[in-house]
């Protein structure tokens, strides 16, 4: 399993799917990410990321119930697979290890990169 | 609250079917969320971007076009073949119509591509420009293809954006001598030494950098090299160029390609000639190569500065006035730059390298090609749908057996493709057959090879495919729409519902035909008009002997000998001729009035002639007297236009002064001794301009007025006299032929127009013939019953013709204003022109009606004469 299998945006979307636990579908994820990042996130981008994640086997999907807000259409709900979960864990471990290596002095430097 | 429906439909249509529900759902839900949160307007804007965000390959549907089974294709072609064979007349009409249409189209494409290809082959064509002199003096527009000889060097010196300039300096014709042979060469030019580096004319022998550097060096084209030196290597050999002495051949270049705006075949080094070095004197063709990235507009913007710097002082010198005063008077002089690729089609400059093409004819013929093709396609559509009764049952059965409509459409389209490609084969054959005649009509030299070069085959095939699809789409759409129950139950009256559409198409065909007939009539009338118009001189029975300067000092004795021949009335020095090769003089004149104040200089054409000129050309003297043998050398004759220009009441005795070249001694004072009737010394595109006839001898040509029944014998005598005096070649022409040659491009256009008009009419008539055939078939019973009830033959014919004649009538109404407008636009280019009278349009209409009637009568008369028993028996 190579790290490069998971793009940055895909990783965020995968995390969102995990966080939203069985209620995750494209619109909800896009809205959530917009709220969290403050950036506009288009539905199409999330949809495409979910398609790729599903192809790679990190999520699985099923059609949910139809709702009025969707003009009577069904939505596709996503859940994280075991493989996806393991991937998330691993990415997190890599990140954590790197974080540990940052010494406090370096952190201080960033807080004010251009003093004065 | 609904999202924008158009966008929704678009994405729904583009999206892969299995994703459609969730994608549309997502979009809808997000829209509703946003609308609730931020208002509908913002939600709509966002919706648009969201839709775009779904436009990615993973979402969009795969192309739904699946290749049908090959067996299906085989079946389509089988059916197509059977249908063609079953309805032979229909197939013949369709294929021949399309073939003629395609062939005309191909020929016109050849012509248009050739015209458009001029000078595009130069490697630097995109940054190569020709510098022209433009302006206006005394209200007269001046557009000259050359620029002063100093202009080229000045541009390179003053503007960093100019990479190089090439001048081509002309010195007229040369008698070129090799050993004892002398040939007359008209296409001689003296270019700057970088000519072969700037223009992409390959040098076969010699170094492009050095061939034309030394004085008296010469580059020949391949053809010229062969003419003078056969198979020998010409490099290092010499030729005598007229009075310019010995020239050494330093190189051989390929023949100048046909699609070039000049066709010189001898290139002498510019250092061998002494050029006039004034900016205002007539100059050289000056080509400017710009550096990459330097736009011609920047150079154009620099021109006022250039004019101030160089031309200003000369204006002071020649006209004794400052540039400022010159411009304040409303006069103007500047330099223009035309892309080298535009010279051929957009050249209306004086003193151009050779007669150029005309963009209007390119547009005109492109239009005609499209129209003829449209007429041929319309035939196909009309006949296929008219024949629908025959096919209705087939369509019904196929549908009952489970054909989809798309399959039926594919079938009909493949039928039309079979027909178009059969037509293409015939069309290519027709092109090959017609090419010699077409070359004659256009005055070009096309070869069949052009059709197989480069992208032409691919273009032709794609074009034919598109035409097949276009012509077949309507029949396919129409025929596949039949409802099986309807067509199978009874002999349903199919082919009626679309009669309206068919009528529109027939009308369009006749609009095209009538317009083209009218156009042809107008072009022919105009050509007749300019050839028969009173031109102010008698162009019949005038013989022009070429290059009489070759006789040197024996010219006078030759002249005397010729004038003594029986059958010769007058002989004159004819360097200046109103048609064909002629010297060309222009000078500035200023009326010398009593008060001696500075008056405006007029730029006028001048002829230098002797006392026999007027009687030889039959030009009428209106006032005063002709030149006299030993008369006043400063006497002049002027034409009526010049009298008007100067505003004289009584011209004889009036004095004018030439502007000359600036020096006081060059300013001659001239006295008007006579006034001549205006004659057309230029072609009919221009109105007659002022002309000043100076007294003198011009030894360039000799004009002879003959009155003889045996011209051949007379010519032999003259030639014998010539041969005794010089070994230069003897050349002659007749003035009336030279006059007719002025309108060669109009004659070509007229004949082409006529040919294509005939073709358009023929194709339209083929279609009409087919339609009439179907109408008659469908109305057989009706005609039978009418005849039984006592209808006359004439009555039946009238009944059948009426419907079509109505369409032709409507077509005439539509075509008349179109033709009137179009022909008037064409006529605008002539200062002397016919008017487009109503009877021209009426005649065109009448012709169309008669042709249509004859076409229909083949069918209608037969139907009317047929025995009603035959048509009524079968039930």
UniProtKB/TrEMBL annotation, chain A:
InterPro entries: Tscrpt_reg_PadR_N, WH-like_DNA-bd_sf, WH_DNA-bd_sf. It holds the Pfam family PadR. It comes from the Bacteria. Residues 15-90 form the Transcription regulator PadR N-terminal domain. This is Transcriptional regulator PadR-like family protein. The lineage of its organism: Bacteria, Pseudomonadati, Bacteroidota, Cytophagia, Cytophagales.
Automatic annotation (TrEMBL), chain B:
Residues 92-303, 565-718 form the MacB-like periplasmic core domain. GO terms for molecular function: transmembrane transporter activity. The chain crosses the membrane at residues 91-113, 361-383, 417-438, 458-482, 503-524, 752-776, 788-818, 838-858. It is found in: Cell membrane. Pfam families: FtsX (PF02687), MacB_PCD (PF12704). Residues 368-481, 755-864 form the ABC3 transporter permease C-terminal domain. This is Putative ABC transport system permease protein. Its main location: membrane. One of its GO terms (cellular component) is plasma membrane. Keywords: Cell membrane, Membrane, Transmembrane, Transmembrane helix. The keyword Transmembrane applies. It is a multi-pass membrane protein.
């Amino acid at each position: 399993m190579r790290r490069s299998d998971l793009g940055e945006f895909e990783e965020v979307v995968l995390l969102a799917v995990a966080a939203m636990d069985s209620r995750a579908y494209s619109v909800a994820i896009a809205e959530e990410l917009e709220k969290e990042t403050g950036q506009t996130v288009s539905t199409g981008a999330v949809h495409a990321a979910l398609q790729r994640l599903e192809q790679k086997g990190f999520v699985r999907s099923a059609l949910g119930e139809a709702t009025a807000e969707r003009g009577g259409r069904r939505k596709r709900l996503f859940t994280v697979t075991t493989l996806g979960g393991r991937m998330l864990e691993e990415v997190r471990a890599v990140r954590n290890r790197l974080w540990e290596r940052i010494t406090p002095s370096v952190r201080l430097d960033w807080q004010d990169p251009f003093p004065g | 609250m609904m999202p924008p429906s158009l966008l929704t439909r678009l994405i729904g249509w583009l999206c892969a079917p299995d994703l459609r529900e969730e994608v549309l759902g997502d979009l809808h839900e997000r829209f509703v969320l946003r609308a609730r949160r931020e208002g509908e307007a913002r939600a709509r804007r966002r919706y648009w971007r969201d839709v775009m965000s779904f436009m990615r390959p993973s979402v969009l549907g795969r192309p739904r076009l699946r290749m049908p089974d090959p067996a299906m294709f085989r079946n389509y072609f089988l059916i197509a073949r059977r249908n063609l064979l079953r309805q032979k007349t229909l197939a013949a009409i369709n294929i021949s119509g399309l073939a003629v249409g395609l062939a005309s189209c191909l020929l016109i494409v050849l012509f248009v591509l050739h015209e458009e290809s001029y000078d595009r082959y130069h490697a630097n064509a995109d940054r190569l420009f020709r510098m022209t002199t433009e302006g206006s003096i005394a209200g007269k527009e001046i557009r000259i293809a050359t620029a002063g000889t100093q202009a080229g060097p000045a541009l390179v010196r003053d503007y960093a954006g100019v990479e190089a300039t090439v001048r081509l300096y002309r010195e007229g014709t040369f008698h070129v001598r090799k050993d004892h042979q002398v040939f007359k060469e008209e296409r001689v030019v003296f270019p700057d030494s970088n000519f072969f580096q700037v223009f992409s004319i390959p040098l076969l022998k010699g170094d492009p950098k050095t061939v034309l550097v030394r004085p008296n060096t010469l580059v020949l084209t391949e053809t010229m090299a062969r003419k003078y030196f056969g198979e020998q290597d010409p490099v290092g050999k010499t030729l005598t160029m007229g009075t310019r002495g010995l020239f050494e051949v330093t190189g051989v270049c390929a023949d100048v390609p046909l699609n070039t705006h000049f066709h010189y075949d001898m290139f002498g080094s510019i250092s061998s000639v002494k050029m006039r070095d004034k900016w205002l004197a007539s100059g050289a063709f000056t080509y400017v190569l710009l550096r990459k990235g330097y736009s011609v507009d920047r150079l154009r913007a620099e021109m006022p500065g250039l004019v101030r710097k160089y031309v200003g002082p000369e204006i002071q010198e020649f006209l004794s006035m400052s540039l400022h005063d010159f411009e304040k008077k409303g006069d103007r002089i500047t330099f223009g730059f035309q892309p080298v690729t535009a010279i051929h089609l957009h050249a209306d400059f004086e003193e151009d390298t050779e007669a150029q093409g005309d963009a209007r004819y390119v547009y005109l013929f492109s239009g005609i090609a499209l129209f003829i093709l449209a007429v041929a396609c319309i035939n196909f559509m009309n006949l296929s749908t008219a024949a629908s009764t025959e096919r209705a049952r087939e369509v019904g059965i196929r549908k009952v057996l489970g054909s989809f409509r798309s399959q039926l459409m594919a079938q009909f389209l493949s039928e039309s493709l079979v027909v178009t490609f059969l037509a293409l084969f015939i069309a290519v054959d027709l092109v090959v057959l017609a090419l010699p005649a077409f070359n004659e009509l256009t005055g070009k030299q096309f070869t069949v090879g052009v059709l197989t070069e480069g992208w032409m085959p691919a273009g032709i095939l794609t074009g034919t495919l598109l035409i097949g699809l276009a012509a077949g789409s309507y029949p396919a759409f129409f025929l596949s729409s039949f409802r099986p129950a309807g067509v199978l139950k009874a002999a349903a009256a199919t082919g009626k519902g679309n009669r309206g559409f068919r009528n529109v198409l027939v009308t369009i065909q006749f609009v095209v035909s009538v317009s083209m007939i009218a156009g042809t009539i107008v072009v022919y009338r105009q050509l007749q008009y300019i050839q028969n118009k009173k031109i102010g001189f008698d162009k019949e029975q005038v013989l022009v002997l070429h290059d009489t300067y070759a006789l040197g000092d024996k010219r006078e004795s030759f002249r005397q000998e010729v004038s003594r021949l029986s059958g010769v009335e007058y002989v004159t020095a004819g360097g200046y001729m109103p048609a064909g090769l002629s010297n060309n003089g222009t000078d500035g004149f200023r009326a010398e009035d009593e008060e001696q104040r500075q008056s405006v200089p007029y730029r006028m054409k001048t002829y230098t002639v002797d006392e026999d000129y007027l009687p030889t050309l039959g030009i009428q003297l209106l006032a005063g007297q002709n030149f006299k043998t030993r008369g006043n050398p400063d006497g002049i004759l002027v034409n009526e236009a010049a009298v008007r220009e100067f505003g004289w009441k009584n011209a004889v005795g009036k004095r004018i002064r030439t502007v000359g070249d600036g020096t006081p001694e060059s300013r001659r004072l001239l006295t008007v001794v006579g006034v001549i009737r205006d004659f057309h010394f230029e072609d009919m595109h221009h109105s007659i301009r002022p002309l000043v006839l100076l007294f003198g001898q011009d030894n360039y040509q000799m004009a002879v007025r003959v009155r003889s029944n045996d011209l051949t014998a007379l010519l032999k005598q003259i030639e014998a006299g010539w041969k005794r005096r010089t070994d230069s070649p003897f050349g002659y022409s007749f003035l009336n032929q030279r006059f007719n040659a002025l309108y060669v491009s109009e004659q070509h256009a007229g004949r082409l127009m006529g040919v294509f008009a005939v073709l358009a009419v023929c194709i339209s008539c083929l279609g009409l013939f087919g339609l009439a055939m179907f109408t008659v078939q469908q109305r057989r019973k009706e005609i039978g019953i009418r005849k039984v009830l006592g209808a006359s033959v004439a009555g039946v014919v009238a009944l059948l013709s009426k419907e079509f004649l109505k369409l032709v009538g409507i077509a005439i109404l539509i075509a008349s204003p179109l033709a009137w407008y179009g022909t008037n636009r064409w006529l605008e280019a002539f200062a002397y022109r016919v008017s487009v009278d109503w009877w021209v349009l009426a005649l065109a209409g009448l012709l169309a009606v008669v042709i249509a009637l004859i076409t229909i009568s083949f069918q209608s008369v037969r139907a009317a004469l047929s025995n009603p028993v035959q048509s009524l028996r079968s039930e």
